[in-house]
């Protein structure tokens, strides 16, 4: 039976796909809090399910961008490869190795609290990027030289590590990197971001399955379905709505959500 809280969670899940379709990121920023605070899953399971939900949704959204020729495949592959290794290693080995209880700056924290605190910091950083008054200017388009390729590889490894630890797709880091380092326009950066997010998120989820993480199938299927519906709407809206205008509003929402998690896991714990 669908309870009011479960129904509210599904409505909120629509925004996961809308965000990914419009901005090429932000999906996991919504997914993890929805799974943890609305559906009541623990942090480890929430981040695991988030990887699958965001991965499948991003893969579906990338099809529309591919049809419009708005994906830079070469740059996406260079970015993805180091992300694959980083996210899989984090989910398969690093997270399972964390103790159930740990001391951080004289505070005794559970593993779930540490994951959520790191996630809140990632959200606040994402909000800061989204609230910048102007979009970063693309560098001049040109050949992908060795220096740029090395920067993309480094960024891919960093984003993969973030993805693995907090279950975030990392679009808020991928899109600026593709715009600034490679010189892609915003639409191609968003499309390429979806391909990268899809591949590394699903590989991270495979790491969770290998590690024996519990999977709540009813929630997984329901939220994924709602997110796919949202993605269908987002990929249509992106052709009519300026994502630059949406980013500040979404940035404030992320700032509020990140602050809420940070306060809840510290002051209100």
Kindly describe this structure.
The chain has helices spanning 4-23, 27-38, 43-67, 73-97, 111-130, 146-166, 171-182, 186-211, 217-237, 243-265, and strands at residues 101-104, 107-110. The chain has 269 residues and is mainly alpha-helical. It has one domain (4-265). A two-stranded antiparallel ribbon has the order 1-2. β1 and β2 (107-110) form a beta hairpin. The longest helix has 26 residues, at 186-211. It is globular and about 50 Å long. The two termini are 31 Å apart.
Strand order of the largest sheet: 1-2
The share of residues in extended strands comes to under 5%
- H-E string: HHHHEEHHHHHH
- Extended strand count: 2
Secondary structure tally, helices: 10
N-C termini distance: 31 Å
Q: Major sheet: size, sense and barrel closure?
A: 2 strands, antiparallel
| Helix and strand composition category | mainly alpha
Question: How many separate domains make up the residues?
Answer: 1
Overall average residue pLDDT: 85
Helix content bin: over 70%
- Compute the CA-based radius of gyration: 18 Å
Shape descriptor: globular
pLDDT < 50 runs, ≥5 residues: none
Descriptive labels:
269 residues, 10 helices, mainly alpha, two-stranded antiparallel ribbon, 3% strand
SSE blueprint and pairings:
Elements: H1 4-23, H2 27-38, H3 43-67, H4 73-97, E1 101-104, E2 107-110, H5 111-130, H6 146-166, H7 171-182, H8 186-211, H9 217-237, H10 243-265
Antiparallel strand pairs: 1-2
Put the structure in a nutshell.
The chain has 269 residues and is mainly alpha-helical. It is 76% helix and 3% strand.
């Amino acid at each position: 039976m669908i309870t009011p809280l479960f129904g509210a969670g599904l409505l909120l899940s629509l925004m996961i796909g809308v965000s990914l379709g419009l901005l090429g990121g932000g999906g996991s920023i919504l997914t993890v809090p929805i799974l943890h605070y609305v559906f009541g899953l623990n942090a480890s399971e929430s981040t695991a399910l988030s990887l699958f939900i965001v991965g499948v949704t991003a893969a579906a959204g990338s099809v529309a961008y591919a049809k419009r020729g708005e994906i830079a495949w070469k740059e996406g592959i260079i970015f993805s490869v180091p992300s694959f290794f980083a996210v899989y290693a984090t989910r398969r080995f690093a997270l399972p190795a964390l103790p159930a209880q740990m001391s951080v700056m004289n505070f005794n924290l559970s593993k779930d609290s540490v994951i959520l605190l790191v996630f809140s910091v990632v959200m606040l950083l994402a909000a800061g990027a989204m609230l910048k008054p102007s979009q970063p200017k693309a560098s001049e388009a040109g050949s992908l030289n060795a220096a740029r390729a090395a920067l993309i590889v480094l960024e891919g490894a960093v984003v993969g590590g973030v993805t693995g630890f907090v279950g975030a797709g990392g679009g808020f880091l991928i899109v600026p990197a593709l715009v600034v380092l490679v010189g892609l326009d915003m639409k191609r950066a968003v499309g390429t971001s979806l391909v990268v997010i899809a591949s590394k998120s699903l590989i991270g989820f495979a790491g969770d399955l290998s590690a024996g993480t519990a999977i709540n199938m009813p929630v997984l299927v329901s939220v994924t379905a709602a997110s796919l519906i949202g993605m269908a709407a987002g990929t249509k809206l992106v052709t009519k709505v300026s994502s630059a205008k949406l980013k500040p509003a979404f940035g404030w929402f992320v700032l509020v959500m990140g602050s809420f998690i940070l306060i809840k896991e510290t002051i209100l714990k």
